[in-house]
Design brief:
single chain; 281 residues; alpha+beta; Alpha-Beta Plaits; 4-stranded antiparallel sheet; 10 helices; 63% helix
């Protein structure tokens, strides 16, 4: 158990360090706005420098915003999520202030695409181990549970409002490039972090009762057993139908194979679900 926790802490720290590197080496170099609380912090930081000739540390803006989000959501946050998020936010803010900029490219489009990819990987890495990179990720975790919906498209919409403010203050070219950054980041999150995605399983097996129990124990989701007939053999078959979280599919299939190694399993990506669906923490 302790090895898992140590591994998770290392991954959260790595995520925070990569996020700080990304801010300094991609975002700041070409003047992008990453959205979320990091985007707000950079917006305030650049406004202070441009309009008031005041230098403000990134962490002095990021920390209060994230503390506010944690206070608003702490009743819905688990202890592990809270600790990992505080570690991520604290380390990212500190490293952003002290790591020197290492320009990778001065091409705005390249920085938008690859910076967005790195940003999405960092967010996904923290979320996969049970934490977050702070900001809107905190609210996404909390209200994703409450609404039973994928929160990332809503997050993208909120980020576009932040970029609107950036465009009004500093010009539209970097704001529009930042939308590319946000889109790339969101697509990577959808690819790597599957908690708020669903998959439909169609399983043909004679061991349907044991498979149903496996699904219940592993995912806390129920299933429906349908009667069918195999057209080739003309034998009666049982079809188990269930919808589970996308992140549970691989481990669930392994457990099902332990019950029936010959089971026929069809996995279908569920693009939309209307009904009560509970996500397992």
């Amino acid at each position: 158990m302790w090895k898992r926790e140590v591994k998770s802490i290392i991954l959260v720290a790595l995520s925070a360090a990569c996020m700080a590197f990304n801010i300094n080496s991609f975002v700041n170099v070409v003047g992008l706005y990453p959205g979320g609380f990091n985007g707000i912090a950079l917006l305030v930081q650049r406004a202070g420098s441009s309009f008031f000739q005041v230098g403000i540390a990134f962490s002095l803006i990021s920390y209060p915003l994230n503390i506010l989000a944690l206070l608003l959501s702490y009743k819905s946050l688990g202890r592990r999520f809270l600790i990992y998020t505080c570690l991520s936010v604290g380390l990212c803010g500190l490293l952003t202030d002290i790591i020197p900029a290492l320009p990778i490219t001065d091409d705005v489009l390249l920085a938008s695409v690859f910076g967005g990819i790195i940003n999405g990987v960092c967010i996904s890495l923290a979320m996969i181990v049970g934490g977050s990179t702070g900001g809107l990720d905190i609210l996404a975790n909390v209200y994703g549970h409450k609404l039973n919906k994928d929160p990332w498209n809503i997050t993208l919409g909120v980020n576009c409002l932040i970029l609107l403010a950036a465009g009004l203050l500093f010009g539209w070219d970097k704001a529009l490039y930042s939308i590319i950054f946000q889109y790339a980041s969101t697509q990577i999150i959808h690819l790597l972090y599957k908690k708020y995605q669903q998959a439909t399983l169609f399983i043909i097996s004679d061991q349907y009762q044991q498979i149903y129990q496996t699904i219940m124990e592993h995912t806390h989701h129920s299933a429906t057993v349908l009667d069918g007939t195999g057209c080739f053999t003309n034998e009666e078959k049982k079809l188990i139908y269930s919808v589970v979280s996308g992140q549970q599919v691989k481990s669930l299939i392994r457990e099902i194979r332990k019950v029936d190694g010959k089971a026929f399993i069809n996995i279908v990506k569920t693009t939309e679900l209307d009904g009560r669906f509970i996500y397992k923490d």
